[in-house]
Amino acid sequence: MVFGRTILDVKRNDIGDKDKLGGLRVVSDIGEHDYDAVVNCLWEGRASIDAKMGLDNNASNESYRVKASIRLPNHESLAEITESVSIMNGPFGDFVRYGPDDHVYFAWHPASPKLITKDSTEILQYEQHANFDFPDGFEEQIVQSHINAFKSIFPSITNTKVFDSAIVGAGYVVANGETDIADKYSGLHERRDPPNLVADGYVSVKTQKFTNAPFNVYQLEQELFVTDLLVTDKRRE
């Protein structure tokens, strides 16, 4: 596994036999290395590397966006909310409880900065957000908009003093869709594409929902390690 590197290129070695060991070369910011198989798990720029390997990863529909969220102490005023909740009726949001003694994560998409772009470099204008370096008034705006959303989603809970201890965070989202999440035609929630694209030892893993992970991993194992269908059937038995 290669972490903390900038991947510049992936290409096939000119060795004639595609099944020969070391048939794939990965070029990074620290040098070049040969591998028998490569799994592309890049977050940014995944589709451009796929294109170099001749794979169409539906890149024309891929977009980048900024997502803001807050973390709250697991205060007794939230005791009536016993489960984690995902709100998917139009505007999207998550309210996730991380155990009785930990914290609560709350993200309401309409409260995020409105940036939707196909150019990954454009999100660099929000790079400081990921390092908790926010412009003046940004945190107050995010907290207040989350309070308003909270009151709408959980109207029976009126004590919102827990938001006085809110910690604001922000990150980037890579998605298949060109419009905001409230647009039902955006394609953001479609799961029709295969999770893994394969080309002779090279596999590209697409970003999908967490709940897709077990099946996607199963398929990845089949593509990398299982070549005999009879073996697959025996494993299932």
Written description of the protein model:
By secondary structure, this protein is of the alpha+beta class. The chain folds into two domains: 7-58 and 193-236, no CATH class; 62-176, no CATH class. It is built from five helices and twelve strands. It has helices at residues 46-52, 127-130, 138-153, 213-225, 229-236, and strands at 7-12, 24-28, 31-35, 38-40, 62-73, 85-87, 93-97, 103-108, 116-117, 167-176, 196-199, 202-205. Strands 5, 6, 7, 8, 9 and 10 form a six-stranded antiparallel beta sheet that branches. The protein has a three-stranded antiparallel beta sheet with strand order 1-2-3. Strands 4-12-11 form a three-stranded mixed beta sheet, sandwiched between helices. A hairpin with a 2-residue loop joins strand 2 (24-28) and strand 3 (31-35). The longest helix is centred in the middle third of the chain and has 16 residues, at 138-153. The protein is elongated and about 65 Å long. The two termini are 31 Å apart.
Helix-strand blueprint:
Blueprint: E1 7-12, E2 24-28, E3 31-35, E4 38-40, H1 46-52, E5 62-73, E6 85-87, E7 93-97, E8 103-108, E9 116-117, H2 127-130, H3 138-153, E10 167-176, E11 196-199, E12 202-205, H4 213-225, H5 229-236
Parallel strand pairs: 4-12
Antiparallel strand pairs: 1-2, 2-3, 5-8, 5-9, 5-10, 6-7, 7-8, 11-12
Query: What is the total domain count?
Result: 2
Q: Tell the overall outline.
A: elongated
What summary fits the major beta sheet? 6 strands, antiparallel
Radius of gyration: 22 Å
Number of strands: 12
Q: Classify the beta-strand content into a percent band.
A: 25-35%
Q: What structural category do the secondary elements indicate?
A: alpha+beta
Please tell me the overall pLDDT: 79
The H/E string reads EEEEHEEEEEHHEEEHH
| Number of helical segments with 4 or more residues | 5
User: Span between N and C termini?
Assistant: 31 Å
- The amount of helix comes to 10-25%
Poorly predicted ranges (pLDDT <50, ≥5 residues)? 229-237
